[in-house]
Amino acid sequence: MIIMVIFVYGSDSFRSASYLKKILKQFKKERDPAGYNVSVLDCMVEEESKRVLAESLSIPFLSEKRMVVVKNLLVSKEKDLQEELADRIKQKTLPESTVLVFWEGGEIFKGKEALALFELLKQEKYKEYFKPLEARELGIWIAQEVKSRGGHIDKQALAYM
User: pLDDT tens across 66-115, in order?
Assistant: First the structure.
């Protein structure tokens, strides 16, 4: 059984959130243009955290796959959910039709359940870590970002930033 788990994390939450938007856009374009099979749930919101397991286990509607994005699980107080999802990932008891994406805007987590899930997710094949950029990397990234948005930035302005 092959289940797809994607882990996007790191303290550069701007770049990681942009990456998450790219994943969602690509999934909708290729698999679910109407958006019926995409759920984005923030575990810092109690009502949304209660839906994570149900959404993860649901079958897709008129599609082969569904995507469930789980935000902020490792920093939430949802210890039981952290443990349940860790067990399901280890035992491969999630539906093959579900693409489960975990997004965390940091990398420091408290609690044994959160740490255990973090260690498990770091071992996944599909993971992206977004560390803060060094000055040189940041300059390159800013220049590329400005260019991709159709702008131009002077080298002096870039150095100032």
Answer: 999 999 999 999 999 999 999 999 999 999 999 999 999 988 888 999 99
Q: Furthest-apart CA pair in the chain: how many Å?
A: 55
What gap in Å lies between CA 127 and CA 97, rounded to an integer? 19
Q: How far is CA 124 from CA 7, 101, 127, 128, in A?
A: 7, 11, 6, 10
Where residue 101 falls (left for φ over 0; alpha for ψ -120 to 50; beta otherwise) is beta
Share of the chain above pLDDT 70, in %: 93
Tokens of 37: 């099979």
Name the residue type at position 27.
F
From the CB of residue 99, how many other CB atoms can be counted at a distance below 10 Å?
A: 23
User: In whole angstroms, what is the distance from residue 143 CA to residue 115 CA?
Assistant: 36
Query: CB under 8 Å, gap of 24 or more: what pairs does 30-36 form?
Result: 31/63, 31/64, 31/65, 31/67, 32/60, 32/63, 32/65, 32/66, 32/67, 36/60, 36/61, 36/62, 36/63
